[in-house]
Amino acid sequence: MPEAYRRTITITSSDCDRxxxxxxxxxxxxxxxxxxxxxxxxxxxxxKTLDKGFLWVISRMKITMERPILxxxxxxxxxxxxxxxxxVFPRFYRIEDEQGEVILRGSALWTLIHADSRMxxxxxxxxxxxxxxxxxxxxxxxxGLKPVLSDQPASIRTALFSDIDLNxxxxxxxxxDWMDDLFDLHFHEVTKIxxxxxxxxxxxxxxxxxxxxxxxxGGHYRVDGKTADHTVFSADIQVRKK
Length: 242
Prior knowledge:
Elements: E1 5-10, H1 24-41, E2 54-65, E3 74-81, E4 89-96, E5 102-114, E6 155-158, H2 174-181, H3 185-190, E7 191-200, E8 209-217, E9 220-226, E10 231-241
Antiparallel strand pairs: 1-3, 2-5, 2-7, 3-4, 4-5, 6-8, 7-10, 8-9, 9-10
């Protein structure tokens, strides 16, 4: 029976914040890298995707956390695919500490798009299939999020060169840094993140200006990023006091 792909890593200082916790952007990057490696080991190598002008993109991602992952900690990251949903490839995650305790569970929805048209490809037409693996304890795949009602931006950011990735748009992990910057040092010191969901709605390109709006409701922070023409992402962050 197929098993989840696993990778053991040790958290380095460059991936941590001032409180010695793994930054959320670095965490999401780790999850995405193990996803790509698992897909390649399954036979869907670069010559069948990137070299043909096909790009893997994430439309939605969600994590739930028991506690922060810390500097110097060695953890094992697991990922496995779910059953394809038309043009969408669900994927699931788990991170365990050295004692085998689960620190994090996650899920994401991935899609292959054409690099030129930015439209989804047909997996059937391109003979692309990733067999799903059944596992217990998975969290549900991310769903839609209601819009933020505030019309006053808390921050306005510009996508610069360091924000842009090899897909030619703002790297999806950078949204996590922008979201973290909305909150002051005291907030990060006294709160614990219990879950993050982020839905990627529209691409952000070089020098696009993005207005960030947020609101708080009973332990949940909702954040929307908008350009003049589009909502580009929506996020839900659940926190509690330490």
